[in-house]
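Researcher: Structure for this, please.
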Amino acid sequence: MTVEGTAQRKNARGSSKRTTAKKATAAKKTSPAKAGNTGRSEQAEQDQLVQLLTPEGKRVEHPEYAIDLSPEELRGLYRDMVLTRKFDAEATTLQRQGELGLWASLLGQEAAQIGSGRALRDDDYVFPTYREHGVAWCRGVDPTNLLGMFRGVNHGGWDPNSNNFHLYTIVIGSQTLHATGYAMGVQKDGADSAVIAYFGDGASSQGDVAESFTFSAVYNAPVVFFCQNNQWAISEPTERQTRVPLYQRARGFGFPGVRVDGNDVLACLAVTKAALERARTGQGPMLIEAFTYRMGAHTTSDDPTKYRADEERVAWEAKDPILRLRTYLEAEGIVDEAYLATIDEESEALGKRVRDAVRAMPDPDTMAIFENVYADGHALVDEERAQFAAYQASFADADVVAEGN
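Model: Predicted structure, token format:
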């Protein structure tokens, strides 16, 4: 569903204040969340959230998921998140400047991606969506290679097998099938590596994801399903998509699910590491729901102010994943001002490298869309190509006229 389509539906619904009020009342009575209530309180659901670092930056323990990291490893996680956020911010700005056609920001989801990404072994294989810029960073993919597709100059700027990181997948949810099939192949090869598939809360409603769950469970495939629940599938909140917390869906397919604080990089690392090890040792699939928040727009073509309240974003800003880790590191004396200044300098250098790389890329071939549609050509495509070429040429003619004046 497009944002434009949502806006049209909202306008159609808003013809009468009285009608809107009645509908709101009816919706309240039949709230999906309440209809699917299993009898546990909201606090009980919160207790199911695996957390090792509170929003205030306090270290806590969990009975099932423990992790012991060196100061160097902790500093590395902080560096990863800061640099990933900087790259993401530069890409967003470049799109606003017309250098990219589109960009899907990960702002607010750094902990989920860096935590899970650093849990992977080199021989594990990743199947991402189109927002896993932090995971790509962890797999050693050059950030500038991610931008070619969004500029329209290639279909993915890296070799998937060089980093065990598949190309970005635009079709919602389809990569979970690819991951499941690949995991079944890994299993037949007798390898002890694992596969991880990333998707969002919106994709969890897709049939492809349900089929992936079925096949992976039946064949005991070594795959981890990592759902970044950022609360919004474009303009639809999670409560409009499910009657139970997403992690509980795994139970119906016969494998475990767990909800982790997606803004806690330590918890995401610990839980993903355990799930991957479980898969490697023949215990089958597992679903991780990283409970996080999409701080920005779905993509740069979206305007989230049309469908969500500012108060919601402000509440989640207090749970910022980078700030909470920095608070902890400073309190423990693991970082000092000199180290933080070094990361800031590295961040600025990365931003400049990204800007220079994108501006050095060629402009997209505007006529390429008509190539390879049919193997032997087609009269209708030829007609459309000619029409589009004439449309493009009209801009050049307008420029000539403007220069003459």
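Researcher: Any notable elements?
Model: The first helix runs from residue 3 to 13. DSSP finds 17 helices and eight strands in the chain.
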